[in-house]
Amino acid sequence: MSVSQRPTGTIRRVGTLLAVAGLVFAACSSASTPSPSAAPATAAPSPSSAAASAAPATPAASATASAVTESLAGQTVTVIGTWGGSEADAFKQMVAPWEQQTGAKVAYTGTRDLNTVLTTGVASGVLPDLAGLPGPGQMQQWADSLVDLGTVLDVPTYTSETAAPLVDLGTVNGKLVGVFIKTAVKGLIWYDPKTLTDLATTPPTTWDALQQYITANKSKAKAPWCLGVESGAASGWPGTDWIEDIVLRQSGPDVYNQWWQGKIKWTDPQIKQAWQTFGEVVASSYGGADTVNTTNFANAGDPLFKSPPGCLFLHQASFITGLGAFKTLKAGTDYNFFQFPDINAQYTGAVEGAGDLFGMFHDTPAARSLMAYLVTAPAQDIWVKIGGALSANKNATDYPDDIAKRSAAILTNAKIFVFDASDLMPTAMNDAFWKGIVDYIKDPTQLDSILANLDTVQTQAYAPQ
Amino acid sequence: MDPRLVTAIVVVVGVPAVLIGYIVLTEQVLRLFPERLKPKVRPWLWLAPALTFLLVWLIYPTIGTAIRSFQNSAGTKFVGFDNFVYVFTNPAMQGALKNNAIWLVLLTALAVGLGLLIAVLVDRVRYEPVAKSFIFLPLAISMVAASVIWQFMFAYRPPGEPQIGTLNAIAGAFGAGPVPWLTVSELSFNTILLVVVMAWMWTGFCMVIISAALKGINPELIEAARVDGANEWQVFRGIIFPLLLPTLAVVSTTIIITALKAFDIVYVMTNGNFDTEVIANRMYKEMFVNGSFGRASAIAIVLLLAIVPVMAMNIRRFRAQEAIR
Known about the structure:
The complex is a heterodimer of chains A (465) and B (325). Chain A is α/β, with parallel strands linked by helices and 465 residues long. Chain A contains 17 helices and 12 strands. Chain A has 2 domains: 50-184 and 355-408, Periplasmic binding protein-like II (D-Maltodextrin-Binding Protein, domain 2); 187-353 and 425-461, Periplasmic binding protein-like II (D-Maltodextrin-Binding Protein, domain 2, 3-Layer(aba) Sandwich). In chain A, helix 16 (427-442) packs antiparallel against helix 17. In chain B, helix 1 (3-30) crosses helix 2 (38-68) and helix 2 runs antiparallel to helix 13 (293-324). Chain B starts with a helix and ends with a helix.
């Protein structure tokens, strides 16, 4: 071989071989990468992998878990929700029996940015099979993309097992698209019975009585209230719960409903009055405005249990029992609650509830089976038993302690039931509400401009886009 | 086999393989062309994949965004300049524009200034590689990781409780009370703190580039100046700094673009609360929280137009440098 002749033939052959190898690798990997990753970035949506798998399954029409007998072995259901940490573990335990019975797998991804993932998903079509929905307001906007659960669940059974308001909240134009996996009662006042020994027998039932009690027992803690509104991108939401509870009991459910529907302005004197009452609470909170704005909601109640106690009361929903210092303490002995007192005797017995709404985006056999399983009492009992959750199903009664039983009773026996207002508002309004709370805590003198700004957002947020 | 291991192998082996394979393939294709056309066609064939990616993932979305910015959020009708009016009149946006101006000026001053200072000082020292590595290290982590680290630096607990935040612990050592650093919006103090976090990351980048340019300066010039009796400051001002100016310009434009794009740090640390809002965070909120695609697109276009002059300057500088070579 002469010097001028380069071994191009070899290079060519090796190069072509490498190119082919590379392409084969790429093709193999995209097929073997399991589709469970629910983030919109994944190429292969799960229905195609479900279709490619072996077992064809007939959808379970019955809503009871015992009828889940068909084999869905090898199939995967992608689920996304906002739960992380201990809540995500609880959900995994909830679906474990279903996985065992059917042989299918649940691939759960938790993200606090649920809104983002689902907004892009609905626009692009890349969606998980099941998803937690941010709230009934958002669910309405996505009603066209959600599967009609009337064909998945046994609707008469579901309706009889679930509290009527919760069924209604999941229905859009007669189509059932959302079901509640777990619920919570809002507006409970938590305290340490070892600090306030006489409270269990005679809790204050009116706002004035509560204020008198606070004045009488001021010396027992550094401040009357504990409050913490930090929560990442959702900072401010515990304050919105306060305002909602006040509006409900001060002005009644009609004003409350008109308010979240955008028919009452934020600058309305009734709403402004509620903010000012909240301002009094902030002024008497442990650590002052700076602490309130920088403390995460899960740890806000920890000062209740310090010695000397940092505060007398914490206003929070029933799910606080699974978070922060509450997690390690004993229900009843270490912590207890009473209901938010009445402000206006006319509206006594009003309760604000909330819950985790679930919807289905892809109609696959495995997804149908999972959805049908999740609404049954045995499934919901699993999370209820772990603690920190209430069930939407009336037959789920496996509550771990007296506290949980009492919370559940409040929900089922509510005379006036409303859903969390900020979850019902359009997301732009909700976001501005959260921000308004943070700004108000920082500088209460700005209330008028904050409310005026909320009015501006209201006109834009509720307008048909 | 763990799917992540498969992905790792695919990336490490597959990417070079595909690259080499593609080049060999194009050589085969070129054989079909007459000899004199080969040098003209070859660059286009080699650039084809990159150009395709640019077209699909850069040009097309940019045009799409520009069109969207004139539509309502559902994309059903054109609303003229309404979205742009919103961008400049909405109070939150105005706050964001003001903050981005602070980011621009302060980040460039800090990152480039400190980078220059450290590059010049460290040039004379024996432990130069070690020092440079330490300064460069923060650039290796993601901005979200940096935000989490600095959140602990700024952490606040009520007075009387043990302070877990570094700054508040130091303040406590001097007898001062804890300060809720990130909520102090007077004089844009919290925005300045966020800029410091970004500067902490990017000083290393500036330092490395300036250091390389510094070493490119002819040592005979400096020797001659010293022999003539110039002191260090005069050497720096008269010789080093003017010769570094082209490099400083390039580095500055990169940092300016980074400042205009700032998002992760604001999103993680304050989410735009307490007057720390920035344009990129507003765009994210409009897009994903409010679902107002039209307004988000308008914000994106405004950002693009703000960056274009900086980019143009960068390219001109780059061309001038290439011409010198």
